[in-house]
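Hey L., structure's done. Input below.
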Amino acid sequence: MSGEYLSVIISACMLVIAFITYNRGTRKMDGEQISNMAFLKNELEHIKSDLSDIKDSISEIKKGSNSMEVELSQIKEQITTLFKRVEALEDRNKNGY
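Output:
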């Protein structure tokens, strides 16, 4: 079941990334757009890191090395953070930044 959630999260992130990239790539880039692309790249690195943390937490559950409740709590926090990042990117894109 955890793998299914991770798959859905990854798919959602990829859709948002593709949408933002498409919208940004349809115009000639100026200094502001280059800055925005650098910002997006930085945010994508954070998202990749968040997904890696989620993957690590799922691995810990499978190993049984930590309490499942603790790991699930961490996964919940990581997913919440991930969705906040994606929502911030969507808002930024809607506002034309």
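The CA atoms of residues 8 and 14 lie 10 Å apart. The chain has one domain: 2-94.

-- N.
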